[in-house]
Amino acid sequence: MEDQIxxxxxxxxxxxxxxxxxxxxxxxxxxDLSKWLDNGTVLREKVFRAYAKSHDWSKYNNHFxxxxxxxxAILPAWASLLISTYVSQFAQxxxxxxxxxxxxxxxxxxxxxxxxxxxxxxxxxIKGCTEKKIPENTFVLLTQKLQxxxxxxxxxxxxxxxxxxxxxxx
Length: 170
What we know:
By secondary structure, this protein is α/β, with parallel strands linked by helices. It is built from six helices and seven strands, in the order αβαβαβαβαβαββ. Helices cover 32% and strands 21% of the residues.
């Protein structure tokens, strides 16, 4: 009789939550306000509005867009708001901040919108190794979201996970 190798991890009731699998692959774009400023620093309202009105915003269709100003210009708050009114008609999401801020916003939005029903009273591993850089804060956010519903929570890989939380039953 041959000894069969049994994959106990596969046979277990562990659920692996890989944020990378949930990560939207929409294109990213950065919109630099300074390109529409005189010398990159002075906003002339009439010219700025004319640029906004004539710009082809459709190129941001289904994109995630970060509105930035790459110079040290001091801009009125309405400038980024005006741009957002145009670009948001086409973009999936728009933020004011860097591309790095945008990536954090996107993955945090994924965490906020996770359907928790399949994790109720289950043992869950938050996958730690990913190709995309996922901010540590996002893992903290995910832990806070899962903890009230899971039976137990781990971090890492199924073969070498670190226990984080186990529900205590009275």
